[in-house]
Design brief:
Blueprint: H1 2-19, H2 21-24, E1 25-27, E2 55-61, E3 67-73, E4 81-85, E5 93-96, E6 98-100, E7 103-104, E8 107-108, E9 111-117, E10 125-130, E11 137-140, E12 148-152, H3 160-170, E13 176-180, H4 191-204, E14 209-212, H5 230-235, E15 251-255, E16 258-262, H6 274-284, E17 294-298, H7 315-327, E18 332-335, E19 341-348, E20 351-352, E21 358-362, E22 383-387, E23 391-397, E24 402-411, E25 414-424, H8 430-452
Parallel strand pairs: 12-13, 13-14, 16-17, 17-18, 18-21
Antiparallel strand pairs: 1-25, 2-3, 3-9, 4-5, 4-10, 6-9, 7-8, 10-11, 12-23, 15-16, 19-20, 19-21, 19-22, 23-24, 24-25
Helix pairs in contact: 6-7
Protein name: Purple acid phosphatase
EC number: 3.1.3.2
Domain Calcineurin-like phosphoesterase: 150-341
Length: 453
């Protein structure tokens, strides 16, 4: 019976999505019922541990079966080592790594440690201690097979809204946290990077946090501060080398059947640029059949946006890179930057297209600038749901073909499911395969005609 159910349910789901898409494109409760709240004050998270104890601990994925532990110590003599094991207090493995620090005007950072640990078993809780002293932390590695659940939210900041949004994320289990840019909103005030690291530590030390950068990470002033992303690169080191990237500002990684691409909206993206060439090569290597049926992209400035805020800021990048994503049949593109939630249909080149990615803006984490309240009217038929509220998203990939996306409004102390949709992977979409095959054969026949001429 159980086996029968597991066969019948996915078939019924696919048929429902195909024939009655309006049923699965649900939205719950009218946005008009909700009173939009203003921005709230910044919270400074103090350091209460000793100088040699770790603070700002966070985990990131660092290649197949490896993770990176990052933390900060005021005491510069503390060594960059992590002891870990599968039982609390019993650390049978030790790894050493690297450390760095940076200066920013009169600010000198504390010692920033990065230690790669592994090989690790999937779906397993590891207990660990950083630098030989201080509290024990634990984190869970992603599962070996589907399902996997991503928590997705951008433009986080460190306000009272950030605190409640993160609490709502933490109240329901998930595997990996994805952040499409704008982390601390330190905006040149470097101690705010430290405060942000301490605020997110309970979450970022227990699940991998994979981030890309936004405009608030740039922190450069021509001539005075020529090097951009100084604090971001030192503190939030991502596994760029593993995907062949030469920059911490764009990279990719595989996790549980999903290829996740992190792009840099504020790095050169023109055709022929280093980021463009890397993206082209990275997408060409994706194995949808055997390894990663799902491909997800994150970037900061949205390519599709009907909010008045930040209109057109992602347009140059879209014009340059959209074709690469379309040809690679990317399933979903997440963006931040606009402090609101918006979900589009599948799009390619400003038109609804069953083979284009679903575009989702999720820049509503809770930062100090408040919400982007005004949307353009009338509503574009490409935009299926939009609301100016804080909240967070969850992408649960059920299997090779089906995923569930949901957006949860931060309604004061409550997390309210406000939008949800079932998604079918483009890697198995027959309709899309037929369209792409037709496009390919027509473009190859037109190139034959051109050759003959
Ligand atoms: Fe931004």
């Amino acid at each position: 019976m159980k086996k029968l159910r597991s066969i019948v349910f996915p078939i019924l789901l696919s048929l429902t999505i195909h024939f009655f898409p309006q049923i699965v494109l649900q939205s719950h409760a009218s946005p008009d019922d909700y009173i939009r709240h203003p921005a709230r004050s910044v919270i400074i998270t103090q350091h209460h541990r000793s100088q040699s104890d770790p603070q700002q601990v966070h985990i990131s994925l660092a290649g197949k079966d490896y993770a990176r532990v990052s933390w900060v110590t005021d005491d510069k003599k503390v060594s960059s080592k992590v002891e870990y094991g599968k039982m609390p207090g019993n650390y049978n493995v030790m790894a050493t790594g690297e450390n760095t620090s940076y200066k920013f005007f009169f600010y000198s950072s504390s010692k920033i440690h990065h230690v790669k640990i592994g090989p690790l078993e999937p779906g397993t809780v590891y207990y660990y201690r950083c630098g030989g002293s201080g509290p024990e932390f634990s984190f869970r590695t992603p599962p070996p097979t589907f399902p996997i659940e991503f928590a997705v939210l951008g433009d986080l900041g460190q306000t009272e809204w950030t605190v409640s949004t993160l609490e709502q994320v933490g109240n329901k289990d998930y595997d990996v946290f994805l952040l499409p840019g704008d982390l601390s909103y330190a905006d040149f005030q470097q101690p705010l990077w430290d405060s942000f690291g301490r605020l997110v530590e309970p979450y970022a030390s227990s699940r991998p946090w994979m981030v890309t950068n936004g405009n608030h990470e740039i922190e450069s002033i021509p001539i005075i501060i020529p090097h951009s992303f100084k604090a971001y690169n030192a503190r939030w080191r991502m596994p760029y080398e593993d995907s062949g990237s030469s920059s911490n500002l764009y990279y990719s990684f595989d996790v549980t059947g999903t290829h996740v691409v992190m792009l840099g909206s504020y790095t050169d993206f023109d055709v022929g640029s280093a980021q463009y060439k890397w993206l082209e090569a990275d997408l060409a290597k994706v194995d949808r059949k055997k390894k990663t049926p799902w491909v997800v992209v994150l970037l900061h400035a949205p390519w599709y946006n009907t909010n008045i805020a930040h209109q057109g800021e992602g347009e140059s990048m879209r014009k340059s890179m959209e074709e690469l994503l379309y040809k690679a049949q990317v399933d979903v593109v997440f963006a931040g930057h606009v402090h609101a939630y918006e979900r589009f249909t599948r799009i390619y080149d400003n038109k609804a297209d069953p083979c284009g990615p679903v575009y989702i803006t999720i820049g509503d984490g809770g930062n100090k600038e408040g919400l982007a309240l005004q949307f353009k009217e009338p509503t574009s038929p490409l935009s299926l749901f939009r609301e100016s509220s804080f909240g967070h998203g969850r992408l649960k990939i059920i299997n090779e073909t089906q995923a569930h996306w949901s957006w949860h409004r931060n309604d004061e102390s409550n997390s309210v499911l406000a939008d949800e949709v079932w998604l079918e992977s483009l890697s198995t979409s027959r309709e899309c395969q037929n369209i792409l095959n037709r496009q390919e054969s027509s473009s190859s026949s037109s190139s034959i005609i051109c050759d003959e001429l």
